[in-house]
Design brief:
This protein is mainly beta. The chain has one helix at residues 4-9; strands at 17-24, 28-37, 40-51, 63-70. 8% of the residues lie in helices and 54% in strands. Strand 2 (28-37) and strand 3 form a beta hairpin. 4% of the residues are buried.
Length: 71
């Protein structure tokens, strides 16, 4: 599968997110993220995603995404 790090490296400049410690593919992987919000930075640890192919039968592309806010 396509490495998630390749996709992350091609995100447009200027987005209010920094993605780090990327592992896995676009279909299933893990990372950490920092979001720049008006209220201040938000760190998300143990960010994980998994493609749900069964949803294609309903005409939808879907991912299960979990994470833990730190700080």
């Amino acid at each position: 599968g396509l490495p998630a790090s390749v996709v992350a490296s091609r995100l447009p400049a200027g987005l209010p997110i920094a993605i780090e410690r990327i592992e896995g593919t676009v279909w299933q992987g893990r990372a950490s993220a920092r979001l720049a919000l008006r209220q201040g930075p938000l760190a998300i640890e143990d960010l994980a995603w998994r493609f749900l192919p069964s949803r294609l039968a309903l005409g939808r592309a879907a991912f299960e995404v979990t994470g833990r806010v730190s700080g």
